[in-house]
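Input.
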Amino acid sequence: MADTVPGKAAYGTQSDAFATDNDLHQRSVGKEDKKFSLGVRDDDGHHSADDLLEAMGYKSELLRSRSTLQVAFMSFVLASIPYGLATTLYYPMVGGGPANIIWGWFAVSLIILCVASSLGEITSVYPTSGGVYYQTFMLAPSSYRLIMSWICGWAFVVGNVTITLAVNFGTTLFFAACINVFESEPEVGIFAAEPYQVYLIFFAITLLCNAVSALGNKWLPWLDTFAIFWTFAGLI
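Output.
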């Protein structure tokens, strides 16, 4: 989380991004070899995220425990390519065949790349823990920024909760199907998978994921590293 630094006014408009960088440049004059928490200022004027936050009137609170490679691993794992392919491959195969899959993937990838580039550029200007709702507040017209950031923030929360529960439920069904690979008799699995049993498994998986995220933060980078190799194995 980023808190407001006492005695410093937070920048309030998109145009103040230039003022932020200019302020950093002026305050760094005469401070040679100054080391920041994320690295040393380069000769071309690049600064760390902590210094950008300070110039905007905030101080860094979150612990950065991931390397650049581990962040890339986390992003790839979140994309969950094998899971996405396994659950949706049926529809393009039936609707359009291999050509539909290949060109559809290519076209959507270009669109996603544009979205990712835009969000990356915006986040580099406003690197705060608020994320998209704070960025919406900063970029929206002053007369609409409150309602727009409110809508964006709640849509982001609801979307994250929904997709997390959907993935957990899909994992539950996948787990039950894996158990029923073993049959007690032809075409009869050993696990009945009654609705209450499916719900209890789903509930346990959700609790486990929450516990790992809340209590095992220092282990998450290594879990992401393991998951990337597991994902590649599943993809191959």
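The first strand starts at residue 2 and ends at 4.
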